[in-house]
């Protein structure tokens, strides 16, 4: 990728809403947890809104609308290149980045489609309801990789219950405390294989049915789910010793809002690590047992980005 292509890819695009890490990264492990909640328009609003949408079409559009990448920069403190004009000088809205941009590594749309394809989604997204997608992005510079896990499902509209679905009881936050993590991982995998959903999940079963709440706080389970990602080694060659990384997440606003048809809406939340525990959501939801709504004004959530059409 030449300098002109990198500058075009990593510069502001009026069509995209961009979330960028607050600082460049050179070491350690960094996790980014997102929730994308897309509401279909009311079935009565149009013919399109009252028609089921193939899941493959939803996955393909979402993969193009939610773009994950990381810029790779030379490290001025340790770089041995000496030729600072070989890359692209890059600035955010607030400050100039250290070093020069030498490469941009992207999570390909086909990788996102593959990750969504492993989420046991129904074949179609029926009229009404939501597309509720959680993503965790793990960047580990010392391993030279950036990996992604996805938990997505279709849910019924707020307050709608399925007659054949029974409440499985509240999830016990500490029920794995006396078990070996490997044993827990095996048991959870067995449970998932025996209870793959074929219909949208009732909103009231959010805590009981979402795999990310059972798996991603357990390291062994999380490692199993981080199947897709970016191998950064080849992209790091031009950046010299100990390069700097700047994770960036680009959201196609219009594409997300119209994922379920014209007139829909989408909300993106950046969540803290505590959101991987059922107790965090129970505390946030209060007395309601329905699907958690976005809480932009909550002290527990980094202010959400609401993207109305």
Task: Report on this structure.
This protein has 309 residues and is an alpha+beta fold. The protein is built from 9 helices and 12 strands. The strands form 3 sheets. It has a 6-stranded antiparallel beta sheet. Strand 7 and strand 8 form a beta hairpin. The radius of gyration is 21 Å and the shape is globular. The C terminus is likely disordered. GO terms for molecular function: protein serine/threonine kinase activity. Keywords: Kinase, Serine/threonine-protein kinase, Transferase.
Topology:
Blueprint (H helix, E strand, L loop, with lengths): L2 H8 L5 E5 L9 E10 L13 E2 H11 E8 L27 E6 L2 H9 L6 E2 L4 E11 L4 E11 L25 H14 L11 H4 L1 H5 L3 H7 L2 E4 L12 E9 H5 L7 E7 L6 H8 L16 E7 L1
Antiparallel strand pairs: 1-10, 2-7, 2-11, 3-6, 4-5, 4-10, 7-8, 8-9, 11-12
């Amino acid at each position: 990728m030449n300098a002109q292509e990198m500058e075009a890819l990593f510069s502001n695009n009026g069509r995209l809403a961009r979330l960028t890490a607050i600082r460049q990264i050179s070491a350690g492990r960094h996790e980014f947890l997102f929730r994308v909640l897309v509401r279909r328009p009311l079935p009565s609003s149009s013919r399109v809104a009252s028609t089921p949408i193939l899941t493959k079409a939803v996955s393909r559009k979402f993969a193009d609308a939610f773009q994950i990448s990381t810029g790779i920069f030379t490290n001025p403190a340790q770089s041995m290149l000496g030729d600072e004009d070989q890359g692209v000088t890059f600035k955010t809205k607030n400050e100039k980045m250290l070093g020069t941009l030498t490469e941009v590594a992207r999570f390909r749309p086909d990788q996102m489609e593959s990750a969504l394809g492993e989420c046991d989604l129904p074949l179609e997204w029926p009229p009404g309801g939501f597309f509720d997608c959680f993503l965790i992005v793990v960047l580990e510079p010392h391993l030279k990789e950036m990996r992604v896990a996805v938990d997505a499902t279709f849910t019924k509209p707020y307050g709608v219950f399925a007659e054949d679905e029974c409440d499985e009881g509240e999830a016990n936050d500490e029920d794995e405390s006396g078990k070996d993590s490997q044993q827990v991982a095996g048991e959870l995998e067995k449970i998932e294989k025996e209870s793959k959903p074929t219909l949208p999940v009732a909103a009231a079963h959010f805590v009981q049915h979402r795999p990310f709440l059972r798996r991603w706080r357990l390291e062994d389970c999380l490692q199993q789910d981080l199947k897709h990602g970016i191998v950064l080694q080849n992209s790091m060659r031009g950046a010299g010793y100990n390069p700097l990384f700047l994770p960036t997440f680009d959201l196609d606003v219009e594409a997300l809002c119209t994922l379920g048809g014209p007139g829909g809406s989408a909300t993106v939340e950046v969540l803290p690590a505590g959101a991987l525990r059922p107790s965090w959501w129970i505390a946030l939801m209060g007395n309601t047992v329905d699907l958690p709504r976005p809480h932009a004004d909550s002290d527990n959530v980094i202010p959400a980005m609401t993207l109305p059409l």
